Every structure is written in C-alpha cells, then in structure tokens.
C-alpha cells in the first residue's frame, strides 16, 4: 500500500543549502514508491538539464507562464493574455509586486491538484522569501481588493491549504548556528502565516561540513581549535533535527538518486 502523503510539498531556505537537490531527490523517492508525483521549480533558471537527466516527472510552469494562463482563462483568450503579458505595464507590475506572480503560480498548482486527486506536487522554492511571499500575498491581496474574481480565487486557494494533509513545508538549513537561526526565523514566519491551516513546517539539516572531514579522512586532532568547536556545534544541531546523509558522488544526478533512498521521513 502507498503511504499517506500530503498533496503539496514545498522546499525552501537560504541559497546554497541544498533545496533543489533535496526536492528532486524527494520527487524521485515518491516516484519510486509508485506515487503520481510532479516536480516544479518556479525559478527562471531552473535545472532543466538535470531534470532531463533524471527523467524527473515535472510541471514546466514558471511565474510568467502561469500568470499568462491565468489571465487567458479570465479573458477567454490566450492570444490577448500573451499580448498583455508583453506590455511594459504588466512587466513592471510583476517586478514591483513579485508576490502577485508567486500567488498566481500557487493557485495554478492548486488547480492541478484539484483536477487530479491522485497527484502530489513537490515545489522547489528558489529562495526563502519566495515561499513566504506566496502565503503572505494571498492574505494581503484579499485585504486590498476585498471582493471580486481575484478574491474568490484566493479564498478557494486558502480553503485547499486548510484541509488536512494538503500542505507540508520543509525549511532546509546548514548545520551552523547562523544558518539554523535564519531557518528557524523563516519557519516561525511560515507557521504564523499558516496557523489557520493543518500545514506542517519542518526543519531539515544538511550536515555536510562534518561529513566532509570524515570522507576525506582528516585527523581532527590536527585541526585548529575554532574548527573543532564548529564541528562540535554541528554535532549538537544534527542531534536535534532530521539530518541528511552526506553522499560522496561526482555527478549531481548520482547524488540525487542515492539520496532518494533515505527520504521516507519527509513524507
């Protein structure tokens, strides 16, 4: 039997902490279980070559393309929507109010989930601010507009997110005090924005620093005192949180495929 999964998983955190690697590996993990799962990264510079190398099931949807589809559906014309999105006004609007595009993309993914009850989506959020902005924007725009088509769409999105087992967010952090503190702040902000939902927000530690010394057979007794203290601090952090195993492979695709075997705890 397939495990009971959430419908939407969001991976977020500061740059360089391993979000994309983990999100892709988790997608492969669910796919290997036989789940109907799709990966999406709404960053403009998505790792398309890596997606293709992994044969990763995905939804090829960016913020701009999602907004164009949304406008086209409202106007009943994809042609007019394409023209509108090319105007300087709308290009400037999405640059000045990035939360609008992020919210529309979230709504598009929720549409996909509502249309296919078996579908699970893994969303790779390119930076910590993007995930937070998605959730803040829905409340902010609802307050600003009060009523109308956009508000009704926002209310439908919020109702979906409130349902049990619909949303789970993973905040990725390195095993350092500074990174952990920033990740905890982000988790607290996400929890605050999602307090009316059944959503869960977890911290995941990328324990790469200590493992680097183990794999390269570094004699800790010869390390300077400040590095020894850093390693000890990381050990304490890792004990308290779900930590990723360090995988010594040369190719990103090989790391992702091996990592996918260890991610059952993220469901």
List the helices and strands and how they pair.
Blueprint: E1 8-13, H1 19-32, E2 36-41, H2 48-54, H3 63-75, H4 78-86, H5 88-96, H6 98-115, E3 119-124, H7 128-145, H8 149-162, E4 167-174, H9 177-193, E5 200-206, H10 208-215, H11 225-240, E6 242-244, H12 252-259
Parallel strand pairs: 1-3, 1-4, 2-3, 4-5, 5-6
Helix pairs in contact: 1-12, 3-4, 3-6, 5-6, 6-7, 7-8, 7-9
Widest sheet, order of strands: 2-3-1-4-5-6
Query: What count of helical segments does DSSP give?
Result: 12
H/E series:
EHEHHHHHEHHEHEHHEH
**How much helix is in the residues?**
55-70%
Radius of gyration: 20 Å
Judged by helices, strands and strand pairing, the structural class is alpha/beta
Spans of at least 5 consecutive residues whose pLDDT stays below 50 are: none
Q: Overall pLDDT, averaged?
A: 82
């Amino acid at each position: 039997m397939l495990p009971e999964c959430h419908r939407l998983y969001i991976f977020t955190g500061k740059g360089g902490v391993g979000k994309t690697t983990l999100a892709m590996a988790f997608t492969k993990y669910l796919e290997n279980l036989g789940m109907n799962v799709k990966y999406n990264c709404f960053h403009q510079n998505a790792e398309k070559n890596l997606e293709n190398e992994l044969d990763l099931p995905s939804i090829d949807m960016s913020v701009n393309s999602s907004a164009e589809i949304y406008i086209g559906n409202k106007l009943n014309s994809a042609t007019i929507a394409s023209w509108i999105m090319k105007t300087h006004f709308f290009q400037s609007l999405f640059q000045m109010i990035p939360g609008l595009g992020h919210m529309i993309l979230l709504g598009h993914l929720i549409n996909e989930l509502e249309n296919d009850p078996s579908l699970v989506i893994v969303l790779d959020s390119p930076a910590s601010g993007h995930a937070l902005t998605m959730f803040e924007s829905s409340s902010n725009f609802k307050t600003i507009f009060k009523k109308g088509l956009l508000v009704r769409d926002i209310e439908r999105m919020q109702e979906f997110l409130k349902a049990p087992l619909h949303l789970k967010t993973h905040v990725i952090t390195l095993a350092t005090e500074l990174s952990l503190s920033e990740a905890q702040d982000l988790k607290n902000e996400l929890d605050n924005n999602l307090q009316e939902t059944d959503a869960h927000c977890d911290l995941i530690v990328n324990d790469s620093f200590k493992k680097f010394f183990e794999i390269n057979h570094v004699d800790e007794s010869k390390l300077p005192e400040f590095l020894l203290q850093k390693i000890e601090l990381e050990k304490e952090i890792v004990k308290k949180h779900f930590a990723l195993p360090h995988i010594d492979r040369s190719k990103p695709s090989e790391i992702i495929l091996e990592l996918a075997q260890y991610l059952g705890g993220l469901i």
